[in-house]
Amino acid sequence: MSTSISASPTDDLELQKTSAEEHSPLTDEEKQQQQKSNAAYDDTVPDGGRDAWLVILGCSALCFSLFGYILTWGSFQAYYQTVVLPDRSPSDVAWIGSLQYSLTFLPGLITGRVFDLGYFRSSLMFSTVLYTTASFLIAECKEYWQFMLCQGVAIGFAGGWIYIPCVAVVSHWFKVKRPMAYGIISLGTSLGGIVFPIMFRALIPQIGFKWTVRTFGFINFFMFCVAILTLKTRIPPKGRLDPIDFRTFVSPGYVTYVLATFVGFLGIYTPMTFVTLSAEKIGIANALAFYMVAVFNATSGVGRVLGGGLAVKYGPINVMAIFTVFAAAFTYAWPYTTSQGAFIAVISLYGLLCGPFVGLFPAPVAQMGAAHDTGLRTGLQMTIMALGALAGPPIAGAIVGSKGDFKGTGIFAASTMLGAAVLMALSKVLLLKTLFSGRV
């Protein structure tokens, strides 16, 4: 895909209007009201200012906790397999992390709806209580089903109940700079993914697993408090619960893009999930292997911010598709590296190149319809995408268990990422009727 394209925000506005008008089941009168609402929204989006940047701070704090745990799963996976749950297969253990990750997105259709109705604050308070409680309960787990319930179900569901509203509230405050805003927020994700793995490795020999996890719980509580103090909505809620009419979501471009995120999340976090185990398999010392998760997350953070900046000029889908193709190439190479230097280089570059996809994937959906339905539209995307996040790690774990190495797993993950890039390009063609010009 070419990047020699227009940077005008008018393209985004026209796409939003076209998508909302062509695929809406509303009456003519309701369409006129919706157009007025969208026009008012476009005229008043601050794209900056104290309140807007405080929202970014709050979202970053939430993502630090939500995805700090998720992105530390490679360390948890290795520790559980070797110390806590040695009688369980890699696929069994991977189900804990897979469930946690997928439940962060799976309730999206419901939580997006709740957000549109104006229950953002109550959702935030509920998630704060459940997430922090579950964080402390992990320290008391001993059996596989207990870890599944606390770390898989409770942590995942608590994160899922607030993540989609967290994504949607950004569209209240940013339009032209929205991709950059998402990139900054995702930097919080990467910082959590750096801090938690390093703490995990450093604290367990000093204070043991239980107090390490409790320390994580205190950090999570603090970050959620920051979110409570800084996050707020700007657009008035819809005020009524309309029946979900899926005709609003039959735009071929929207459907294809949602499918792209589903396919992408089948495989994009596979190297991160097994990075510690694969490093140990080629002879990298255990002390260094555990830090590979932090290395991945650090370079991914750079990629997220870089992708956000480029997306403001070139459009999120253009940036994601190009970077994802190169990320797939390094995923193919990952299982074939046999030296420490090559392994670190591949993981570092893979993290950098997959950063734009994992940081920007919600951005295009915000402009594919009416502003007041952003939560529902984003929620539907997240719900479908979550099925890929749920199935991907266990499939990869099963391949590892059957083959005894990571070559088949790398081929599986890289192929899904290439498929996602192709589908993103196709969605752009369906939305704009062109591949090499325009942005979305």
Uncertain segments are 1-14, 16-26
Quote the beta fraction: under 5%
User: What is the CATH H-level superfamily?
Assistant: MFS general substrate transporter like domains
- The chain-level mean pLDDT equals 82
Query: From the helix content, strand content and strand pairing, which structural class follows?
Result: mainly alpha
Number of strands: 0
What order do the SSEs take from the amino end to the carboxyl end, as H and E? HHHHHHHHHHHHHHHHHH
The largest β sheet comes out as: none
Shape: globular
Number of helices: 18
Plain-language structure description:
This protein is mostly helical and 440 residues long. The chain has one domain: Growth Hormone, Chain: A. The chain contains 18 helices and no strands. It is globular, with a radius of gyration of 21 Å.
Draw up the topology in text.
Elements: H1 10-22, H2 28-44, H3 50-71, H4 73-84, H5 90-103, H6 108-116, H7 120-137, H8 144-173, H9 178-230, H10 252-267, H11 270-281, H12 286-289, H13 292-314, H14 316-333, H15 340-360, H16 363-366, H17 374-403, H18 407-432
